[in-house]
């Protein structure tokens, strides 16, 4: 309240400054447009003019280049600044918008009758958020919002296919959401056996031979060479698990899981904690626990016990019902979660973070994907290892040369041209995250056919993987002609690593079921990284932070190279797993003892 008179005093001179008044008159031009709604979405009706939208305006970050350089410096072994992760204020300084951007955007909003007191801002001021009726958003963005229906799920969203900004604002605003983003975060898992499965032998950890078919925490510790390593529960190291879509993890199921499969965790009363973001859910009602959430917490905790785990339940919003004019429709994947995480103090941040959700890269508008990816860079610069599942469709839809499609192929571009294309996954394709693919079986461990992999069409290849990926393409030149036009050979390639991903024993709704997907490998791999961070922290060293520059230089020597298998999709065989890095399993699966020796040699 105290701020209001102050702002009022400041405004008139600012609005009168000459560059601003000239700027006021600039005409609108298109900021972003889509040729058509993405596959699965159909136009339903015009948006009700009084429907409230929670608009987020992302201002440009002119010093992002410096932030990126800092990320490489603190993450690359051998650099003077290796391990010297940035603090919250350091990062905020590097993503702060230019004063002109703040002034011009404020002036534009005020011109439309929006008082500055109605705006909320992120700590770095790079996001401006306000709630306003559709009619006002339409005037602001020279657009028309519509209600679109997602045919498979019956969900509704208020979106537009095109929006504009005054020409003078284009250089000051990266994105305005919600507008053209139709992305629907999908969990990367499937339940193989919904019916109860019998445990190999109840109340005793499964023996390694059974690990060839069904996975338990004991199997993973065996396969990934954890040995008798016991991490500290109190070093300050924490593991974060991101959950979306009203999924929450069931504590009774998880306790039951530990009683049968990790008795020392049950005996210690080990349990994840929960933080709710944007009205996320955590009902603990046995009948509607999330299959994804239970898988994630049971395996992240199963591998990293007794390191504290936190489940972040981010609410989407209740699905918009056009007839009822439901007053919330934010449903912007990542935005709420990232704002929440980046506002945390350095001490509060988990050192590793697993997310088993994603979407096809092309369904995420380019500007929004870049912005979200840049926010993961901020977490990396602050020393958080950010992991994402690589996806469950191989190079696209998971269909091999001999498979039958049960509908029109989805392996087409959505630029209005319907060109055949592999489908990269996002955020796995973001160069500032570590993408986790999938394996199965042991002795030998091999690529699972659904392991998501390939090349981004949005993000160019980062320097850290130039040699590894260039080497793969040089050693397998047939792909350049065989798959010409289907993938971008100059793109950021993924996954970076992999882990077991099939037949995971999960307690869900009081029953043991089997689940599969890179949803299983991501929390598993993150659990191992959390153990490595424990080793580092208890040796007085900084945590690993953003993994990739380390992984592609020295880290990969601590991985089991996976050389068997391939990842079919789009009626092709996909890519082959080979010696060294490949776009099926990355560098392979972690060997904890070897990695621990690399990071703490003596
Ligand atoms: C998964 O587990 C089921 C039930 O134990 C088993 O029949 C199947 O062979 C397993 N799949 C693989 C790929 O090992
Ligand atoms: C909670 O878990 C125990 C096993 O640990 C089980 O016996 C009990 O039925 C579960 N409670 C509910 C409400 O599912
Ligand atoms: C939060 O969720 C609850 C239950 O899902 C709902 O009743 C309530 O209206 C929501 N609150 C907000 C602010 O969206
Ligand atoms: C639990 O969920 C079920 C199904 O959604 C519902 O019928 C039941 O009333 C809920 N129980 C409680 C205690 O909320
Ligand atoms: C692209 O494919 C979609 C779905 O199959 C179809 O509706 C659309 O008309 C096609 N567009 C072009 C330009 O062929
Ligand atoms: C694991 O199962 C696969 C497929 O059935 C088999 O080829 C392999 O030999 C088995 N490995 C072990 C160690 O039993
Ligand atoms: C991939 O591996 C299969 C099986 O080993 C082999 O037949 C095929 O030629 C390989 N493809 C390429 C492009 O190297």
TrEMBL record:
Main enzyme class: hydrolase
Keyword Hydrolase listed: yes
InterPro entries: Peptidase_S8/S53_dom_sf, Peptidase_S8_Ser-AS, S53_propep, Sedolisin_dom, Tripeptidyl-peptidase_I
UniProt-listed GO biological process terms: proteolysis
Positions annotated to bind Ca(2+): 561-562, 580, 582
Signal sequence interval, chain numbering: 1-17
Domain Peptidase S53, chain residue ranges per copy: 214-602
Residues of the active site: 292 (charge relay system), 296 (charge relay system), 519 (charge relay system)
SUPFAM superfamilies reported for this sequence: Protease propeptides/inhibitors, Subtilisin-like
Co-factor: note: Binds 1 Ca(2+) ion per subunit.
PROSITE patterns: SEDOLISIN, SUBTILASE_SER
Catalytic activity field: Release of an N-terminal tripeptide from a polypeptide
Subcellular location: Secreted, Extracellular space
Enzyme Commission number, as recorded: 3.4.14.10
Alphabetical keyword list: Calcium, Glycoprotein, Hydrolase, Metal-binding, Protease, Secreted, Serine protease, Signal, Virulence, Zymogen
Coiled coil: none
Keyword Nucleotide-binding carried by entry: no
Highest rank taxon of the organism: Eukaryota
An example molecular function term from Gene Ontology annotations: metal ion binding
Cofactor(s) needed: Ca(2+)
Function: Secreted tripeptidyl-peptidase which degrades proteins at acidic pHs and is involved in virulence.
Protein known as: tripeptidyl-peptidase II
């Amino acid at each position: 309240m105290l701020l209001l008179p102050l702002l009022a005093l400041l405004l008139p001179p600012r609005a009168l400054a000459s560059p601003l008044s000239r700027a006021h008159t600039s005409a609108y031009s298109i900021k972003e447009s889509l040729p058509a709604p993405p596959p699965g979405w159909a136009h339903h009706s015009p948006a009700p003019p009084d429907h409230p939208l929670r608009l987020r305006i992302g201002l440009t970050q002119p010093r992002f280049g410096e932030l990126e350089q800092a990320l490489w410096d603190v993450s690359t072994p051998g650099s003077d600044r290796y391990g010297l992760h940035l603090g919250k204020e350091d990062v905020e300084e590097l993503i702060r918008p230019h004063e002109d951007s703040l002034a011009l955007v404020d002036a534009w909003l005020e011109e439309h009758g929006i008082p500055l007191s109605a705006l909320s801002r992120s700590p770095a001021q790079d996001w401006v958020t306000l709630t306003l009726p559709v009619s006002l958003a339409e005037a602001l963005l020279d657009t028309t919002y519509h209600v679109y229906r997602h045919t498979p799920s019956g969900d509704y969203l208020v979106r537009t296919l095109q929006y504009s900004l005054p020409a003078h604002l284009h250089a000051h605003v990266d994105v305005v959401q919600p507008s053209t983003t139709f992305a629907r975060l999908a969990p990367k898992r499937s339940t193989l056996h919904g019916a109860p499965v019998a445990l190999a032998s109840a109340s005793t950890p499964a023996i390694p031979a059974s690990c060839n078919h069904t996975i338990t925490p004991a199997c993973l510790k065996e396969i990934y060479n954890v040995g008798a390593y016991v991490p500290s529960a109190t070093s300050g190291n924490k593991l974060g698990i991101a959950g979306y879509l009203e999924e929450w993890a069931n504590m009774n199921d998880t306790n039951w899981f530990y009683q049968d499969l990790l008795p020392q965790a049950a005996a210690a009363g080990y349990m994840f904690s929960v933080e709710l973001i944007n009205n996320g859910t955590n009902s603990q009602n046995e009948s509607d626990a999330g299959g994804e959430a239970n898988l994630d917490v049971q395996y992240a905790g199963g591998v990293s016990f007794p390191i504290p785990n936190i489940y972040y339940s981010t609410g989407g919003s209740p699905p918009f019902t056009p007839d009822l004019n439901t007053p919330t429709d934010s449903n912007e994947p990542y935005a709420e979660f990232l704002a929440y995480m980046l506002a945390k103090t350095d001490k509060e941040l988990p050192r590793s973070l697993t997310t088993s959700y994603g979407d096809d890269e092309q369904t995420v508008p380019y500007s929004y994907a870049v912005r979200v990816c840049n926010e993961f860079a901020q977490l990396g610069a602050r020393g958080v290892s950010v992991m994402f599942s690589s996806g469950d469709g191989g190079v696209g839809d998971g269909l091999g040369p001999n498979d039958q499609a049960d509908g029109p192929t989805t392996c087409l571009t959505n630029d209005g041209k319907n060109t055949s294309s592999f489908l990269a996954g996002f955020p796995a394709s973001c160069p500032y995250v570590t993408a986790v693919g999938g394996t199965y079986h042991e002795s030998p461990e091999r690529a699972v056919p659904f392991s998501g992999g390939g090349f981004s069409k949005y993000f160019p290849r980062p320097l850290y993987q130039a040699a590894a990926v260039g080497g793969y393409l040089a050693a397998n030149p047939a792909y350049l002609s065989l798959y010409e036009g289907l993938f971008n050979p100059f793109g950021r390639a993924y996954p970076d690593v992999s882990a077991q991903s099939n037949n995971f024993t999960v307690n869900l709704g009081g029953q043991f079921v089997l689940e599969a997907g890179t949803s299983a490998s991501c929390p598993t791999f993150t659990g191992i990284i959390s153990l490595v961070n424990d080793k580092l922290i208890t040796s007085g060293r900084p945590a690993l932070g953003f993994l990739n520059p380390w992984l592609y230089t020295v880290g990969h020597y601590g991985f089991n190279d996976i050389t068997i298998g391939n990842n079919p999709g789009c009626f092709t065989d996909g890519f082959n797993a080979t010696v060294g890095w490949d776009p099926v399993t990355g560098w392979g699966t972690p060997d904890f003892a070897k990695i621990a020796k690399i990071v703490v040699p003596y």
